[in-house]
Amino acid sequence: MNNLLPNFPPGKAAIFNGAGQPFEFISRQVPFIKAGEILIRNLYTTLCGSDIHTYCGRRTEPAQVVLGHEIVGDILWIGPAHSGKDLRGETIQIGDRVTWSIFAVPENIAAPREDMPQKSEHLFKYGHALAQGDDVFNGGLADYCVLLANTAFIKIPTSIPVKVAATISCAHSTVMGALRVSGDLTGKKVLIYGAGLLGLSCVAMCKEAGATRIGLIDTDTSRLVWGEKFGASQVYAFPEDGTPFPWQDADVVFDMTGSPQAMKAGIDSLAIGGIAVWIGAVFPDKPVQVDAQKIVRKVLQVRGLHNYNYQDFLKATIFIENNYLKYPFEALIEKEYPLDEITDAFAFASSSKPVRVGIKISG
Ligand SMILES: [Zn+2]
Questions:
Q1: Structure pTM?
Q2: What is the whole-number distance in angstroms between the Cα of residue 172 and the centre of ligand 1?
Q3: Distances in Å between the alpha carbon of 97 and those of 15, 29, 93, 158, 159?
Q4: What's the gap in Å between 65 CA and the centre of ligand 1?
Q5: Residue stretches of the chain with pLDDT short of 70
Q6: Looking at residue 239, what is its pLDDT?
Q7: Rounded distance, CA 298 to CA 318, Å?
């Protein structure tokens, strides 16, 4: 069947060559689309915080990588032996707009736990794989992306702006996972550290999940102006050393920052029986100085989450479908660049720290 693959034009990919280095552009033919695979035309990619950490050298990825894992695109070709269904069970066809999971579990690999496919051995991650030979279309900073067999993907309405749709596959899905880990939020007091896209998405999701009081804290007060628009009851600048913390009675604290100081402050903000959910610590940093006696005497729990599972991904997609007009998610992509200007885009993202920078790939 593969000989039916139309003659698509060669595609461009922006190659990351090491921290602070300019990106290199290469052009490659569309590869052979194997059984179970899908060829995507990338439309839009947003630069996630971890992409920026990689660019700045705070997080190590091998050089010669096509970065970008918050991507949205349209189906260009469906490989042979594909089920023809998305994660919802809906029939797909060429031209459908889709979002896909950041990871693909190789076929014949069992997940360590059914609810943690993202921790499977030999996991493939889009936007993190080596660009080798013709195999370069595996990230968001390229014209095409080949979805490997066994990739979870979901057909989405074209009415969702591509800027918003791109952010489903990392930020919103991870936050939806954090809400799963936090338990039922109905009537709860929730405090969120970090007012980037994760934190603002968390505010909106907590609001929709029935939290009655939602606080948002950041050191960057310019970001706090978004808090109320996403449903925060109160926003706070991170207190100076020695200043008392605004809350000591939170039922749940979420850490989106990865900052040891913020994670410690989060523990100090919890009520008896409180839960701290940590998702921000995805790069090396100093240990968190936790008072173990406080954990024990206040009967606290600390729960971590890295990435997300399929249910989180599905629920996050539905959340965005239902709420993309209710909250100003599109405005959080504060600046947009074409793919050709990707080096400038990373320089701006790392120096000016907007909530998100968007990369227009095509369309
Ligand atoms: Zn990410």
A1: 0.96
A2: 10
A3: 25, 22, 9, 6, 10
A4: 15
A5: 1-3, 242, 363
A6: 79
A7: 36
